[in-house]
Every structure is written in structure tokens, then in C-alpha cells.
Design a protein that fits this description.
The protein is α/β, with parallel strands linked by helices and about 350 residues long. It has 6 helices and 17 strands. The strands form 3 sheets. Strands 2-1-17-16-14-3-12-13-15 form a 9-stranded mixed sheet. Strands 5-6-7-10-9-8 form a 6-stranded antiparallel beta barrel. A two-stranded parallel sheet has the order 4-11. The longest helix has 13 residues.
Length: about 350
């Protein structure tokens, strides 16, 4: 398969720039993969498709308000820094714009008295920076001075930064939100539980590689970025129990799916409970854990288009996306949702 097999035409006006006032009011396109049947619903109807004994698995990673603005010491030149990954306490892998003048030894000054010293230049133009501040942790400073690192296709500033977090976000570490979960409210999650469905969590810290285009024509040559994940013991127990009793494991988002498929083998042995995963799921992949998927609509030619095509079948997905465009669904991070059964 080539990258062109996962392309589709998307009018720019269908890219959602802001979230809806109510999280669960988004539309829901339901795809029955065995028949290709499509249903047009709303996200608050999700319990109509969940059964007693099912297990909903969410990614509880929390987005860091990691975009900060400062100046170069000595010149006063404005810089924008995006914190990507903590390497050790107060030492981070970052992106700096403009990057040319962010040479080793350069000191950057931020609000709240925080400074950053460029230690070295990494691959892809990234920098390693050591931060100094007066707070208990750098996260306290970022909460006050940082902005959410919104995807490049969102051009409007987010008024309520909490809308780029899921209501169950707990584990700080993501550079982008696991957006399929943005549709859930606490009330809807209670309704899911009342329906006899259990809820478990995993953690996968979403990196900016999520938005990087696939450059290889032959998709099998693409190398995935690696991201940290962990699976709690309780989640492992619930997955085994659910499968044993005939329930379905319903993943909320591609990140939860990649975590589950990285952690287990075909016999549901947890072969890796935590660490880094660079799993690349594309058509031909045999799913070990995931039975159904709640997801958003993804960018053309993206690895996420390939993942949903692996689960639902490429032809089913391309037809579903054609119908979604025709019916003016909202796309990407703040857009509508899809349920693949």
C-alpha cells in the first residue's frame, strides 16, 4: 500500500477551529465494519452501542501548557519555546523558534523569573535546555505562563485551556491531547457506568510526532516516533476479565489503542507494562486487544488513517470519510467523533 491510498479531499472550512459549547453535543458517525453500514447520531448516544460487560479504556494523559514565550539574554530577541519531553529534572527536549540563535550557552529569560540555558543541539533541530525557577516544580510555572500547544491546523487561540484536556486527564506529560476523549463529560461517564460498562485507564504521553506527515511513499518504510506509555495492574486485570466473560474492549482513541496493542500478546499476557512504543498499525495488522474504537476524524495520509483502516477496512473508512464530508461533519481535534464497531 502507498500513502496515496489514505488520501481524501477535505474542504478547509470543515476543520473545527473551536470546541462546541458542550462536549457531548458533537456528532457521532457509527461504522459497523462487518456490513459497512453507517449511522448518524450524537455523541451522547454512545451508550446505545455499549453493552453490559464491556470495558471502556481511556488515555488519562494530561497535556502540559508547554508553549512559552521569552527573550534571549543580552539581545532581547523574542523566542518561542515548546517543551516536548522531560529528560531529567528541569532538563527538557524542546523546540525553539527562531532556532538559529539558540546555540549552546545561550540563556533564555521567561516570566516568573524562570530562565533556560541551551545545553546542546539535538537531531531535527531540537534543543536540550536546563531550566531554573523558584517553584516546587516546573509544572507550577507552566500552569501560570504556558499556553496549550494546539495542533498547527488550529489557527484560533483557545479561550478556555481546559477544553483541550479530557475530564479524566491525570498524568502530566502530553504535548497534544488524546482528542477522542474530549467528547466525554463526567455525567456521560456516569451514564456509561450505570449501563454496566466498566472504565479503565492507560497512559500514553502524546508527542508532536502525531502531527508529522508520512514522507515515505511505501507506508511500510515509515518509522514511527516513540512515546511513553504505562498500563496499570487494575487495567490488565479488567481486560482479561472482560475478554473471559465475552465483553468487548472499547478503546477511546488511537493512543489508547496503540498502548493496548503494544502491551499485550495474543494470549493477553502483558509483555510490556510500561516503556516506549513506536508501534505502527496499518492494514494487515491483527488486533490483539481492541474490539471497538471511539475516535475522531484524522488527517489525510496520516498514520492514524492507517490505524483506523486496519481495524475497519480501508474501503469502509474511505467511504465513511466521504459521507462525513458530504454531511458536513467537523474534522480533527475539536471536531466530531466516529465509533467503529
Amino acid at each position: 500500500m502507498t500513502i496515496d491510498d489514505f488520501d481524501y479531499e477535505l474542504p478547509e472550512e470543515l476543520i473545527a477551529q473551536t470546541p462546541l459549547p458542550q462536549r457531548d453535543q458533537s456528532r457521532l458517525l457509527v461504522l459497523h465494519r462487518e456490513t459497512g453500514e453507517l449511522e448518524h447520531r450524537n455523541f451522547y448516544n454512545i451508550t446505545d452501542y455499549l453493552r453490559e460487560g464491556d470495558l471502556l479504556v481511556v488515555n488519562d494523559s494530561k497535556v502540559i501548557p508547554a508553549r512559552i514565550f521569552g527573550t534571549r539574554s543580552g539581545t532581547g530577541g523574542v523566542v518561542e519555546v515548546l517543551l516536548l519531553k522531560a529528560l531529567e529534572e528541569n532538563v527538557w527536549e524542546v523546540l525553539v523558534r527562531p532556532g538559529k540563535k539558540a546555540r549552546p550557552g545561550q540563556i533564555l529569560e521567561f516570566q516568573e523569573g524562570m530562565t533556560g540555558t541551551v545545553l546542546e543541539i539535538l537531531e531535527d533541530g531540537k534543543r536540550k535546555i536546563r531550566f531554573a525557577h523558584h517553584a516546587a516544580t516546573i509544572y507550577e510555572v507552566l500552569d501560570r505562563i504556558g499556553r496549550m500547544p494546539l495542533p498547527p491546523y488550529i489557527t484560533r487561540q483557545l479561550e478556555d485551556q481546559g477544553r483541550y484536556q479530557t475530564v479524566y486527564a491525570r498524568a502530566l506529560g502530553s504535548a497534544a491531547a488524546p482528542t477522542a476523549g474530549l467528547h466525554f463529560t463526567n455525567e456521560l461517564l456516569d451514564k456509561v457506568r450505570d449501563h454496566g460498562v466498566k472504565i479503565a485507564s492507560v497512559t500514553l504521553h502524546v508527542g508532536l510526532g502525531t502531527f508529522r506527515p508520512v514522507k515515505e511513499k511505501d507506508i511500510e518504510k515509515h518509522i514511527m516516533h516513540k512515546e511513553y506509555f504505562s498500563i496499570p495492574e487494575e487495567t490488565i486485570r479488567l481486560i482479561r476479565e472482560t475478554k473471559k466473560t465475552g465483553g468487548r474492549v472499547v478503546s477511546v482513541g488511537t493512543t489508547a489503542t496503540r498502548t493496548l496493542e503494544s502491551g499485550f500478546d495474543e494470549e493477553l499476557n502483558c509483555v510490556q507494562q510500561s516503556g516506549e512504543t513506536g508501534i505502527f498499525i496499518y492494514p494487515g495488522y491483527r488486533f490483539k486487544v481492541t474490539d471497538a474504537l471511539i475516535t475522531n476524524f484524522h488527517l489525510p495520509k496520516s498514520t492514524l488513517m492507517m490505524l483506523v483502516s486496519a481495524l475497519a477496512g480501508r474501503d469502509n473508512i474511505m467511504e465513511a470519510y466521504r459521507v462525513a464530508v458530504e454531511n458536513r461533519y467537523r474534522f480533527f481535534s475539536f471536531g466530531d467523533a466516529m465509533l467503529i464497531l
